[in-house]
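Same chain as my last thread, 200 residues:
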Amino acid sequence: MNFEELQKAWQCQDPGAKVLINADGLLNEVRRNQRQFRMTIFWRDVREVGVAFLLTVLFLYLGMRHHDWTDAVLALACFGVGTFMVVDRLLQRSKQPASSDSLKTCIEGSLLQVNHQIWLLKNVLWWYLMPFTVALGISIGHSAWRTSNPGFPALMIGVISALFVALVYWGIYRLNQYAVQKSLEPRRQGLETLLAGLNQ
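reply #2:
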């Protein structure tokens, strides 16, 4: 069959015809995607919280070894970010749909999860980067203040450090926004379309 014959066959179709979908199959597919999404987020959080914990221990050790209180501030920032992620995960866990929920409830639950992840990544500057910014600013400022040769060299070290941190933060922020646009927004649009189709 060539293209013209396919086009004629397509145009002959009844425009009012409805496509039937196997609801159980669709529900299983939505649940499978939901589990996969949850596991991806879970392992991302495990890595982030693990690194935050290791950095907390490292900065506490360095602070005690060098008698530098600014390392304790860095440890507190790492601990705060890790704690935020654990508490957030526990709060979101209570909002997950049960395995016996209907297709609509399951899709709505998935949509809530995706919307929350979009919110987290769009606000990564405030809950993730800002605590580190404050702690690093205190640490760099204190180190520059303590140097035996204050003045231009200490100022240059502070400026170079601040520029390096700003560049790394910009990269982290852009990477998170890319993840929202590339992965989360299409997932949200697909779920919203599916939910709108169920409501018709």
